[in-house]
Amino acid sequence: MHNRASLVLSGAILLLALLAVVTALPWPLKAKLFPLVVCVPLLLPRSGGTGALAARKRKRRRRKASEVPADVAARRTLLAVAWIVAFFAAIVLLGFPVAVPAFVFLYLTLQGRERWLFSAIFAAVVWALFYGLFDALLHLPFPSGLILEWLDLAMRELK
Predict the structure, then answer these.
(1) How many domains does the chain have?
(2) Which of 5, 68, 84, 92 sits a CA distance of 20 to 30 A from 152?
(3) What is the pLDDT of residue 1?
């Protein structure tokens, strides 16, 4: 059942990404840039991934995969949910431009157990790509987070 669900999900993502690309093609450059940047990379692994899932389904029938214990799976699931909630909270409190690199740095350092220098460099690259694409190229304004707004108001009162 798990393999069939993965195959259906992979096929649905492939079709939705393809539909988004075809729909966005006649749009002006600034309008179609975001759907193309997101959906074209989805098409590449999904097209091969859907076929690979079907092939793996046949192989798994031949051999039994080892199961992860229920308590380990539950702990991993709760940890993933906690990271997602923390990311959303960081977006609300700090805003996207600060939350994205901060989250990348903390996730790589704490969860991924990477060295802090690698995490810092990777977070800086993510920030540069994020800033370059959304702010410099597309001119999309992101609202500052609640904490930054509060600090800005506190700074105005001091003047």
Answers:
(1) 2
(2) 84
(3) 47
